[in-house]
Design brief:
single chain, Rossmann fold, alpha/beta, 5 strands, 5 helices
Length: 120
């Protein structure tokens, strides 16, 4: 089963996107900036992702996760949120993102906010 589709928040560098696609060529990933979401507020980005069924990958662990938790608390659909908790990008970050995407069902991703790197 292919991983769920992804929306890369505007703060995700192209190098991370390229690494994700290199390790998982079937990954359906789009950039927020390419979908006209650049500069829009987090609730709008999350709403767009929910309407499109795309898991959001972000480096915004403060406000994006805050609004993600608010969506969950309000009973609104959210296809998933993966927050990168470090400014240092590494192969481990890429692999941890793919672990969540490939190892979780859509229902599991929609009921939680995941943080990478995964604590060991």
């Amino acid at each position: 089963m292919p991983p769920p589709p992804v929306l890369a928040d505007e703060n995700i560098p192209n190098s991370l996107l390229q690494a994700l696609i290199l390790l998982q060529p079937s990954l359906d990933i789009v950039r927020a900036i390419d979908r006209g979401l650049g500069g829009l507020d987090d609730p709008t980005v999350l709403e767009w992702a929910a309407n499109e069924g795309r898991v959001v990958v972000t480096r915004d662990v403060n406000t994006m996760t805050k609004y993600g938790y608010e969506r969950l608390a309000a009973g609104l659909f959210m296809p998933g949120l993966i927050a990168i908790t470090t400014d240092r990008l590494s192969r481990r970050i890429v692999e941890d993102i793919l672990i969540w995407l490939e190892g979780s069902t859509a229902e599991e991703l929609a009921t939680d906010i995941k943080f990478v790197p995964i604590a060991q």
